[in-house]
Amino acid sequence: MADGDKPALSRTEGGNPGTALGPDWHEGIPLRGSKGVSHSVHVEYQCEVEQIFLQQEFLQQQAKSLSFPGNKAENAELQLDKEVWPVYVRLTSGKTYGCDFVVSATGVVPNVEPFLSEKFDLAEDGGLKVDDHMRTSVPDVYAAGDVCTAAWEPSPLWQQMRLWTQARQMGWYAAKSIAADIRGETIEMDFCFELFAHITKFFNYKVILLGKYNAQGLGVDHELLLRCTKGQEYVKVVMQNGRMKGVVLIGDTDLEETFENLILNQMDLSKYGEDLLNPDIDIEDYFD
User: Fold this and answer.
1) Which of 41, 84, 202, 260 is deepest in the core (most CB within 10 A)?
2) What is the three-class DSSP state of 225?
């Protein structure tokens, strides 16, 4: 029983859970706005989406929206937007902006409702508990992907995140486990569960997440090493006690293989310090 699609928090008119966007959701979409103007990124802090309006609904209310701040200074006076947009978003801060479309990134809720007629053990997050061979609490029933929750003791460098990459890995491993159980064979935990790894693209930049890339579970006892080259790359390394625990790589850094090995080997890197991210040093030479 695999569940590679991710039910969203909202529901369609038919009452069925919607699915999350795949890794190539933006392919074929002209991401330059309906007016053909490219904007810089603007972030609204300390607020949430209060309400979303379609164009006709918004215009009937004779409401007003703000123009996109763009590159204006933070304290610049806000201007009313004279353009008409397909969608409008009202924030809890009182501001309203028009836009082409809204992408919701509110997380994933396991869609277990179709299976609750059976006596499945559920995890705190609502997923079906599975052991280290993807077996649920119901005999001969396996689960993989977003519908399940890993109930085994995970590797120190792996965590479950309901992503399409993990759904695929779990589905493959569940099939392998089923075949092994039928044949009465014993198999080891798959290597993909040793180190968290996710690779995707965002606005044509390669994005790689490895290990505890956001210092998950490390507490305050960690440090970050950063390297950023505007328009080219962004590198963040999470260190704890001189050992590499996770990384974020955006752009063509060519560091993923070396850093993956350093995370897995847990080598003490204290003596290298910030040279780990020195662009003038070929880090691969250190660890060939």
Assistant:
1) 260
2) strand
**Spatial separation of the C-alpha atoms in residues 30 and 42, rounded to whole Å:** 19
Distance of CA 205 to the CA centre of its chain: 15
Question: Rounded CA gap, 99 and 168, in Å?
Answer: 33
Contact between 225 and 236 under an 8 Å Cβ cutoff? The reply is yes
End-to-end CA distance of the chain: 42
**Distance between CA atoms of 245 and 265, rounded to whole angstroms?**
10
Residue 238 corresponds to which tokens in the numbers above? 């999470």
- Tell me the C-alpha distance between 30 and 73, whole Å: 27
Alpha-carbon gap, residue 25 to 242, rounded angstroms: 38
Transcribe 49-62 into DSSP letters: EEEEEEHHHHHHTT
> What are the Cα distances from residue 253, in Å, to 195, 245, 247, 273?
20, 18, 12, 19
pLDDT tens for each residue of 132-176: 999 999 999 999 999 999 999 999 999 999 988 899 999 999 999
Place of tokens 């460098």: 157
Let me know: does 275 contact 287? Beta carbons within 8 Å.
no
pTM above 0.85, yes or no: no
